[in-house]
Amino acid sequence: MNDLDLLESRSIFILREAFNKLRPLAMLWSLGKDSNVMIWLAKKAFLGKVPFPVMHLDTGLEFPETYAFRERYSAEWQLDLIADPCPPIESVDQSLPNDARLAARKSLGVTQAVERYGLKGLIAGIRRDEQATRAKERVFSPRAAGNTWDFRTQPPELWDMFAADVPPGAHVRIHPLLHWNEIDIWCYIKRESIPLVPLYFAKNGERYRSLGEIGITRPITSNASNVDEIITELKTTRAAERAGRTMDHESEDAFERLRTTGYL
Amino acid sequence: MTINDNVIAGAFPIVIVGHVDHGKSTLIGRLLNDTGSLPEGKAEELRRVSKHRGMAVEWSFALDALQLERDQAITVDSTQVWFQSPLRRYVIIDAPGHLEFLRNMITGAAQAEAAVIVVDATQGLTEQTKRHAYLLHLLGVSQAIVAINKMDKVDFDRSIFNRLASEMKTHLASLSLEAVNAIPVSAREGDNLAKPSARMAWWNGPTLIEALDVLPRRRATIDKPLRLAVQDVYHEGDERIIVGRIESGRLKVGDPISFWPTQRTARVKSFQSWSTAAPILSAAATQSVAFTITEDLFVERGHVVATADRGPRQSTSVRARLFWLAPGHLHVGKTLRMRVGTSTVSVTVSAIHGALDVDDLAFHQDRAVATNDIAEVRLTSSVPFTFDLFHENETLGRAVLIDGYNVVAGCVIDRDADVAAITASSATGASTITIHERARRNKHQGAVYWLTGLSGAGKSTLAIGLQQKLFDLGAQVAILDGDALRRGLNSDLGYAPQDRTENLRRAAEVAKILLETGSIVIAAFISPAASDRDMVRNIVGGPFHEVFVNADLAICEARDVKGLYAKARAGSIAEFTGISSAWETPEHPELVVNTGAESYEKCLEKLLTYVRVTAIEGGAIAKGSHASSAAVPAGSLRA
After folding, report:
1. Are B264 and B136 contained in the same domain?
2. Please, what is the angle between helix B158-173 and helix B127-139, to 10°?
3. Which of B10, B439, B573, B606 has CA 20 to 30 A from B582's CA?
């Protein structure tokens, strides 16, 4: 067993626990690299098919390449795709900084999906190394009715015996990639030849390292035009992965505020 | 990457523990900075944010990301960060030191292979440091490095370091935790973390990083007996595919395997997978697998796959050390759900052997078990469950205890308590007469019929009538009556919820003794709380039948044979069930007799028929006292 085998095995274990314990269950598909890895892992866990719907929280603001990817691979991977539009910008907390408001539409999209489909479990591809508040997460993270995250009352999580029991109205967020690093994701993409939105690969000296919506995601300066070059680049860079996500940096607590109200 | 197959790969997980304010987060923040592991701009951000708050550079902010933590300057939850030494990659788990956040410290430490215990040189070993050390021992972390921190505050005094280092090493040795090294550090200034300290020239030992880099990895559990806890069974056409993770040992196509608790055997037919380079023919510990077997057996989540000759243990009772994380005290009689591997079983805390004093490391029977305490307990279930002892095989040797929606404790199973349980509950100690021999002589098996219902529902009357009928049939029969027991055995108890629980706990223990004599036990107790009835069922362990003697409150009150309802209404009896104390209607009783709607004779007849079918007539004896350990017939496969 090498690093990637271990990471893969634990993710598969987590996905199988979620599928056994939490129904109805759905997986969030942001169309980014991590959630593609997550779908790949689900196909491994469930032997070739994803046995629950995958959800794209559609703000209508994705790049055209991203939409093209969604159409192609939802068919190719035989996914049960749900792509409901997120609630409009007018419905979000107006006290949030500008770009965070755009991101908050996704939080409302999550709440809407949980309510509309009566979800007990929602699988999301966040990782601990992405961002400090995500580092505090549990693999099985219960959300009270209303979708809020209270980091003070998180349950103990022991020895991969995850707490899947929640009161009526609440749901569990499942994070099968929590223990992966950015470079693990890329090494796994390489090993498994997992397809990606082409925006990750450099064109004219720029590429997207973290892929969000138009307007709140900026490319980085890079010449890494394939997976190998990206892995080499990551081994030397000290820049933060989400540096190009503008809403994280508007104020000291912007991201934490987003997360306590349901953002991923 | 080339890795020795027998060593667990992946980042080396370490946990940083110690008393609040002894400088754990600062140590990590500084370590990240000094090894170039902080993202670009983070050090500048820390300087800026710290300055903004009028503080010197606060390295702990690198981890204490949450706003609340910055404001209160403490770590709430466990955080994981990665860092690279010259030798290998580490994942460091910063565990909160504050007592209130012990559950988070445990969450962090449960994932670690080694610990760094941070001790403030000006404070020395505190109760909290010792508690953390004990928990590391309990969680199976076997190696530790002691960082004696804040050496700058004691003028880098060598004698202070030597004294604390030796004190700490002695304490850890008594927990079989090996203190690999004790190192004098000043985390804030980076002394002896990544670089040797110029201010402690007297120190010839390693830096913290050098000490970490020589820690051996945990051995993989490939050479231990096979254990796989079944997660699920998927249906693919006619194929039934068993999925789970191999926790120890190996598994290959053609291997004979045995399923616990059914102990049915089969061979591995094939492994199933998607998008693997080649078909899988064998697998080993840490791998998640999917496979089919050669026989048509009943397999479900919770079953354990092992080999027939080196299988797990089974018992209805174990002795365990637990850490109690819920608010309030843990009491004998508390019924919880216990998860071991992927199976869940209802257990009752049937004895508390004591709470740990972290100073003398002894369990004291006279101490109550409060939140965050470590206690030694006996956990008892009505059905046998499958487990290993922690020192033999970790994965199935630990359990999580759940109350309602909450995880309230974790525990390690130290020994099978069946022998102890029999000795404790039987008047004569372990018996040479088997339950089957008694059943043969009595011509029926022993069983407990627990009559629950409101006062005045007719429990005692039915019990007396049933006893007579069974006696006339030649059965060995006994009555346990709530009112009678309260006059004698339980005369010291009142009617507060805790007293009611104790009343029933004693009754259940007596019922168990009678059951072991092969008797048919008819128990008549109001037993208003569902959790108490579950406790009783778990303590009795053997054949147990909950009989709901159902009559509406209005009917019981109208009957009021003993005049108690009138007194309760007048307020002269406090805590009277149905009037001033809650009654929880049984949700899944084995039998309901409706004395409100049907005649006494009819109810008695129904009860007698039920007893005849379940305890007296053919085949009943074969079901024995541990019915569920009997093999499940293959015919129930597709039920």
Report:
1. no
2. 40
3. B606
